[in-house]
Amino acid sequence: MTKQALIIIDMQEIFFNSEENALYERNSLIKQTNTLIEKARAEQVPVVFIQHCEEHPDDEFYPGKPDWEICHQLKRLPEDVVFRKTRWDSFYRTGLLDWLRRNEIEQIVFAGAQTEFCLDTTLRNAYSIGYQQNILAKDAHSTLDSEVLSAEQIIRHHEYVWNGRFANVQPVEQITFGR
């Protein structure tokens, strides 16, 4: 049996409590991410949260600010592991890789935000450091519109690039844990 972990990246309050930073399809994103969390817990698969931090006290992502908190709508438990990061890569200067190795994790299921930034950077690095059987939850990641592309276009483009290369892109309903 492949040992798995569910990693949820940067699902922080700023993306859910303001219209100007509202993630595309954010209500569905919460629902689908919570479904993933429930499926993982049912098979005793660890749930890991990644929390972006900025170093300047005026920034919304400064530790302790309301927007910085992990989204309260997620079914997070006190025993869930949380790694704080200061760059787009969830492995950079965090304990994530050591934790994965210590827990003998072989496959990562990814969800979170933002598609083209922290999720993309982390997914590609995970592949490069040896996690090559990963799954991306197709309907449990999102982003914002950019000046160039809509959020929907960004998501579709990245799923096309990732699928079969850096991860297998699967709808939440098809993702199974504990197998």
Automatic annotation (TrEMBL):
Q: Name one GO molecular function term.
A: hydrolase activity
- Pfam families per UniProt: Isochorismatase
Q: Per its record, how is this protein called by name?
A: Cysteine hydrolase family protein
Which intervals hold domain Isochorismatase-like? 5-147
Please give the family membership noted in the entry.
Answer: Belongs to the isochorismatase family.
Identify the keywords attached in UniProt to this record, alphabetized. Hydrolase
Please verify whether the record's keywords include Methyltransferase.
Answer: no
Write down the EC number: 3.-.-.-
Q: Does the keyword Hydrolase apply?
A: yes
Root EC class: hydrolase
